Known about the structure:
The complex is a heterotrimer of chains A (334), B (578) and C (301).
Chain A: H1 2-29, H2 34-39, H3 45-55, H4 61-73, H5 87-122, H6 127-141, H7 144-158, H8 181-187, H9 191-228, H10 231-238, H11 243-280, H12 286-296, H13 299-327
Chain B: E1 61-66, H1 81-87, E2 95-97, E3 105-107, E4 115-116, E5 122-126, H2 141-152, H3 165-169, E6 178-185, E7 188-193, H4 200-204, H5 215-220, E8 250-256, E9 260-265, E10 280-285, H6 289-297, E11 303-304, H7 312-316, E12 321-324, E13 331-337, H8 347-356, H9 359-366, E14 371-373, H10 395-405, E15 413-419, H11 430-443, E16 447-453, H12 455-464, E17 470-476, H13 482-491, E18 493-494, E19 497-498, H14 507-517, H15 522-539, E20 543-548, E21 552-555, E22 558-559, E23 575-576
Parallel strand pairs in B: 1-10, 1-11, 15-16, 15-17
Antiparallel strand pairs in B: 2-3, 4-5, 5-7, 6-7, 8-9, 9-10, 11-21, 12-21, 13-17, 13-20, 14-20, 18-19, 22-23
Chain C: H1 14-18, H2 24-33, H3 36-58, H4 90-126, H5 128-142, H6 146-157, H7 161-188, H8 191-198, H9 203-239, H10 252-260, H11 267-295
Amino acid sequence: MLKYVFRRLLAAIPVLLGLSIVLFAFVHLLPGDPVAALLGQHATPELTAEIRTRLGLDKPLYEQYLIYLGQLLSGDLGKSVINNRSVASELALRFPGTIELTAAALLFAIGLGIPLGRIAARHAQGWTDGAVTVISLLGISIPIFILGYTLQFFLSVQLKWLPTSARLDPRTHIDAVTNFMLIDTLLDGRPDAFVDALRHLVLPAIALGSIPLAIVTRITRASVLDVANEDYVRTARAKGLTERRVDSRHVMRNAWLPVVTVIGLQVGGLLAGAVITETVFSWNGVGRYVVEAIQDHDYLVVQSTILVFALIFLVVNLLVDVGYAFLNPRIRYS
Amino acid sequence: MLRIRPAGLVAAAAIVFAACQGAASPSPTSAPSTAPSTGASAPASSAPATSPSASIKEGGDLIVGLPGDMVEADPSLVSDSNSSYIHLNVIEGLLGVKPGTLGDVIPVLASDLPEKSADGLTYTFKLRQGVKFHDGTDFNADAVVYNYDRQKNAPKELQDAYNYYFGAVFGWGADSNLKSVEKIDDFTVKFTLNQPQSNFLISQAPLPQFGIQSPTALKAGDADNPDPGKSPYAQGQGGTGKSMVGTGPFMFKEWVPNDHVTIVKNPNYWDSANMAHLDSVTFKPYADQAAELNALQAGDIDLAQTIAPNDIETLKGDSNFQVIDRGDSCNVGNLEMNQKQKPFDNQHIRTAIAYALNKQSYIDAFYAGLAEPADNFMPPATQYYKPLGLPTYDPDKAKAEIAASGLSGDALTLTFYYPSDVARPYMPDPKGLAQAIANDLEAVGFKVNFKTEGWRTGYLADEATGKFPMWLLGWTCDWPGPDNFLVAAFFHFQGSKPNPEFAYGPPELKAAFDKGATAPDDATAQQAWSDAQDILARDLPFVPLVHSKPPAAASAAVQGFVGAGNLNEALNSVWLNR
Amino acid sequence: MATAAAPLNQPLAQPLTSRASRGLWRDAFRRLLHNRPALLGLAIIAVFALAALLAPVLAPGDPLAGTLVNRIKPPSAAHLMGTDLQGRDVLTRVLYGARISLLVGVVSVLMGVAMGGTIGAIAGAFGGRVDTVLMRVVDVLLAIPGILLAIGVVVWLDRGLLQIMFAVALTNAPIFARLLRGSMLALRESDYVTAARSIGASTGRILFRHMLPNALTPVIVAATLALATAIIDVAGLGFLGLGPPDPRTAEWGTMLTDATSFYRQAPWIIFFTGAAISITAIGFNLLGDGLREALDPRLRH
């Protein structure tokens, strides 16, 4: 098992290396450069040239890439051209926000999607099944920002049940330790702030979780139905086992496999969806950060952030595969 | 001003950095007993009319929504409106602007307006005594000299790229028009210029970039590091007394980038009559105006510094909120043109475009009526303004001008750039405005070919280098002087040549500009700026559209807020009625 | 999938075994016609396609030029869906918008299938080192969140419908590459390809006559489903300020994006445009699921 994990990690290295080259080439081939965004209308040819030299942007591309790679290998993600802040410390500040958001969205999707899928499967063809089908269809068909604004408009503005945006009430001051609001509020001994952070999390998590919810629901339903028709389940039922026992011992244990796989596949989509969700809800996360960086041509920020995204994506996929193998002992690590 | 501007520095800048912010002066409304008499300053009762002082409630935390985050904690390193909006509450300059006005210059850390020599070359300031910075350092002549010298001799890396306004007003180092700032005694400072500079007072008064900061804190925080990212002072680290250390009614507390900036009441403010009522103010950035409005309606913020004009109706119907009218406009929104690009070299075409545009319909549709049609390249509240009688909406005259131009067919296709991703005070909905303009132009016989670029990605840079034939842009004042609009924003010269943005500038315009900028007295300045406006009216280099009044909105609990068209809004007079 | 029309306990493989001789496609078509949700999806798409084709005939107004004094008027007899921020008839723009949105969606998915399919087919057909290299490239692309890739492409290539199509295609391509490669690999080892090989069929014949047609099945299903997301992705690009350069263009994503900042004053614009986007997406999702069931009865649910 460990050997398998190790081998998979090794295989990730060429992917990340390739990605770093592709990203580097891509951002450097974009017309315009960060100096233009930095100077705006202050730009003069002399000033631009001077700043390019200072930033090392006048060196040959391969040399710039090797410098970048060297930095990466020594654990330095570089710094923003626009505001000089180190990418690593900005990510440390913002990644927790995105992780909190995506984790909440995933929890929402799983927590609601699996029961919904099971209910739909149990009553397949009935009206509950129909209702669940329609909900999941809407989930994948309504764009995140429409859903986000709609939720915001009705639940925050009209009904005032939940806060509109941001991660915490601006009046609340807590010490930032981990930058996970749910953790920091507790570390600070502020259960009230914890509840507040939780309330801020609800709407963005629902907006972001709507697509995975639909997908998890569908796959759970399909998977349960599939397994329910397997011989061993019929046998179990024929043996006179209670429906609940059949469900927990035979159906779900096997139905988990595709569900876990699909959940793993959602992580990439969630990171992408976070870009839009964070914009709608003014969420201080890494999605907004990277969109701004792309628009500013802030090379190092774009490269390093997407590399970190990719790393997360690969690690999650690895975890999913390991989880898959754990759930299904028939799979060999090869 | 012309001569001192570093060659080629494209001054239209302040649009980006919608400058025009504010006062280093949080409203000294009555002379404190500690200070020597202050003749010009402070009408005793300039406290906002809305807040009868008997019922003022002390304390509370105000949350303000801003369109973006602070950029650096040191005002000398920024030229954006969000940073300035925060800085002006913390850092004061020698001069300031009377609250609620655009350009009534008043002394703040100076005890009186300066004494000007007959040749217009020296200004002598008496300083206010007994003032301390937030870190306990004494304010005195040494502090003033240190601050001006520091900016004048800023490291090359900071000049223009970060530190913009000092260069724009005085120029750098040996090339600076500011020859020297000398200490005469502990509370007297003398400024000596190389050339008379007619904007000396009005340019410095509204800008926190000319604020005086604690020399102790600046040195300790490595504020002059050529890389502001490495300066704890510029990065807002360390809290009160370590960063953003001025003398104002509020003191810096903390900055969590992209999340909030908090300032707290200065209990030892020198102007005890204008002590802040609030315990603290927190500024939160909202990239999206809809999100900001939601936050206001949900009670997450108390004051939205900028709201979309179209949201005014929504808020007006709700007694929990108030819409704030900012009084005189200090901006102009334009349909700009480059005479190097066809067919804009043809004056008949430019005139035809001016006749084709129904400015009032844009104002009703996109500015919620909070604007007036422009009849000049600068707003009416500017020094030396006069109405120019520019063409007004008349499609028939537009068609006649097109006929007179001798152009037809493809030559009447206008390439029209608009910014895709931004709302500015002078154009709250550029995308909508561009479409309405295009419809008016096509109605008289033009064809419009739309192009767009991201505001930061290329719009400003490409506009500055002359790539655009016709485009939407405008200017919010840094200070309400003609030089700030006509020269800095638009028709500044590069040497003797017109700048590439407009490719327009006859020699007589340059002569008028130079005369106005270096006028030693008011009458000369008046004449020169009047001449310049006449030349522009004659040539109509582009079509000014509107002067807008960007609205703010607040919860009904917010009292004592004094709005200003240039966003020069000190918050010490604000209190919360709840 | 969620739209199974047959009773749960019906043996799943039955239709295939009993009518094996009829050919996969005819069979699939017959099953599709019996799938009510899929037919609904088909009907939705047909209605929108028709609206797109007949827009100039059906539309009551001018899609591009409006009258400012008529702006933001709620639905009425004169304007069934109200008017927009420029005083244009929203119904007119929804109809014209169907043209662009369907075109952008279809073309971008086709481009994605072509790009991804080529890579996947080559990788699957040749296997070995070619496969390894190509799939690593695909891995690299898959590791970048789609919307960021799309933003990058539009920022890079400048704004325009063609650029948006390419951007959306590029985010879809790796998915199709994987899909086609997977089925090609499975088919390489399948009995009938082995059989064809053993009777001496040429590689080209095996590839084009035996492997590709069968490998395409899942691609067709995935492409139909991708149409739904393509239309949403285009709207997302518009939301981030990267729509077509002419702001007058009646493109659903741009229309909706412009309306989001006015959703208090003019909720009907968002409602009707959002409904058009969502209903079209629903149509493609229903049809895609129906196709999946029809083409692969094993996946009936």
